[in-house]
Structure formats: structure tokens, C-alpha cells
Fold this protein.
Amino acid sequence: MTEQTSSDSMSEVYLQISPNILGSFPKFRPPVNLYFFDENIAQVKKYHEAEKRLGKDQQETVGNFAADGILFLLREDYRVYAKHLSKNLGLVLTEDDFTPQEVAEIFYQALYDRMTEFLAQPTEKPYELLSKDISILDEYLWTDPSRVEYLMKSLHPEYDWAAHSVNTLFVGLALFIMALKGKLNRAALTSVAMGLILHDMGMVNISTFILENKGFLVRADRESIENHVETGFTKLKRLGINDPIMLQCILQHHERLDGSGYPSRVIGKDLSLPGRLAGVADSFCAMLSDRPHRKGKDARQAALALIKDQKKYDANLTKLLGVLLTQGVGSVITPGETS
Ligand SMILES: [Fe+2]
Ligand SMILES: [Fe+2]
């Protein structure tokens, strides 16, 4: 197969495969079709079919193509490629061929998978894998916090715990970065990120029958839902985690400024910043997602509902949420600004 390309359209149609990325592919069966630029005829040609066996000589040839910068995949194979990269997330930090939106989708995919694994088995190993991927996200955002804008464009409204956890992480991080503009601290960024993604880790014990109940919940059911806060806290402690910011996200994401929340009915200034942040991000994401008994709200409507509810939600954070949706992160922080 031969395809006509000008150098301008080249990057729209193809993504370059670096030696680093090639090295992460299964050696004998690359997950995507491979192409190379044939200089003799100045055209891109297909070299190998995805998932077919690559012989030893072919491996060498492909390695040389990658080293010479002439090995490519089709951009339309991006989904398969993103899935592959999400398992090797560190690679997104070394590659600059992706658009920020593509990187955001890779992060979503990776964290969604990690969170699904962790919720199914909240033990040390899945926790470590999750926290490793979170530290890669932190590194990516620390280099340029304005990138969080693209994470906001990668929210997924489906009704699913892992999706809700990643959405809450993305929204909460955007608000945190905007709120702390100029005073962002790397360690706090990591703790907040972990706290946000894990805020509902205690929910896994609740039956879907209770969660999907359309009508009136009996007291025992409501108590069982409210217990997810304590359950999450206990599970996290059992993993040996004592990070106060993470614990505040989990313990206080259902507390409200007027004392109407749960489990401790914390009031006003006793409600920590991580708790307020997790509360706003969590409520916003819950409103966005489709539930068995109702359609999700439009993002601006959801933000407006929170902005109006100043008795319960931190006015500074909800105002930032409004700014985020109408003007974007860039209206508050400039690209590349870390401190
Ligand atoms: Fe919750
Ligand atoms: Fe939640």
C-alpha cells in the first residue's frame, strides 16, 4: 500500500513511532499497523500488519526505521495506540508528538483502568500502580499546569464508579490549580490528586440495588450509603496511608459548610480546603453523569446550581468552576506557570 503525502499533511495522517515507544511494543506482534517513509519515492508505505508476527530481520529493519525517525502509525489507529500507551503511561512524558487532548484521553484511559482494578481489589499492589500513574499525571501538570484544561475536556458522563472517580479527579485538579495559582506545591498536588480519585473508595461495598433505587430509600439503605465515607477511611488506613490531605478528601467530601452534610456535620471553617474541593468536584461530577433514573445535567447548569448554593459550597471554588467552564483555565493561569 502506498499513500501520497506532503510533509504538511504528514503529521495529520501519521504519528511517528520513536525507538522508546517501539521498545514498549510486544516484540513479535506490534499492536498497530507499521508504516515507513520511503525516501526513494518520497512516499509512506505500509511495512507491517498489526498483531501479525514480526520476524527477526523485520524487527531489525523496524528498529532502524525508528532510529532514523521514519517509522509511523496511522493517526486513525490512535485508539489502539492510546490503549497501549495507557499501560505504559510514563511514555507520554517523553513523547511530544501527541496533541494535549490526545494525552488527556490517554490519562483518562489509564486512570480509569487503574481505578477499576483498585475498586475490584483495594489492596497494596493495585494501589501502587494507581499511585504510580497519578505521579506521572502530576509530573505532566507540574511542567505546565495549564494542561489541566484538556483534562476538563475529557470527562466521561457514564454511570460508573471508576469514571466518576476520574472525572472528580480531573475537575478537582483544575479547581485546585486555579485556586492555588502561584502557590502550587508539588507534594500537595500529589496528595490532592490521590484523595480526589479515591474519595469514594468506600462505595464498592454498597449493593447496586440500593444505588440504583429510583424512589424512597429506607433509613438502613441511606445509612449504608453514608457509611461509604467511614469505610473508605478505614480501607485507606489499612493500606498504611496517613496523608492528611487524602484523608480529608475521603472523610469530608459529603460535609457541607452549613453543617448539613455527613458523617460528622462539620461546620464552616472546620471544613478543610481538600474537603471543600472534593465536595464541589464530587457534586458537580455526580450531577453531570447519567443515572438509571435521570439524565445527567448540562455542565453549566450544574455549576450554576452549585454557585447558587453558597450555604453549602465554598463560594470561591464554585466561582472558579464557573470561570473554568466559561473562560477556561487560561483566564486564571498562564501556560508553563508553576509558581
Ligand atoms: Fe461519596
Ligand atoms: Fe463521589
In short: Residues 164, 168, 199-200, 282, 286 surround fe (ii) ion (ligand 2) (CB under 6 Å).
